[in-house]
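#struct-help
A.M.: can someone run this one for me? Single chain, 98 residues.
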Amino acid sequence: MCLGLPMTIVETDGVSALCEFRGEQRRVSMLLLSDPPVGAKVLVYIDTAVRLLDEAEARLIADAIEGLGAALNGEDCDRFFADLIDREPQLPEHLRLG
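D.P.: on it. Structure tokens below:
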């Protein structure tokens, strides 16, 4: 399984960028994006930034990752999925039966 990380650009040269998530830094390819600025949030898969994120979406993804970690450690994870408390998660249309 490949997990996309919401990373923050620390420095960039337009071709690659030093990005950070949870204190870990790594150099990622920026070839799929149009030179986002330092401080921008990007979704990174396999050391490639694939799209820009706004602050709210980056926070939701980071919370989900922390929630998965808590669940794997047998800890309470409900606080990480607060956006799902008042609604049932919905499958995308192409995954629904019948």
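A.M.: thanks! The radius of gyration is 16 Å.
D.P.: also worth noting: The CA atoms of residues 12 and 18 lie 6 Å apart.
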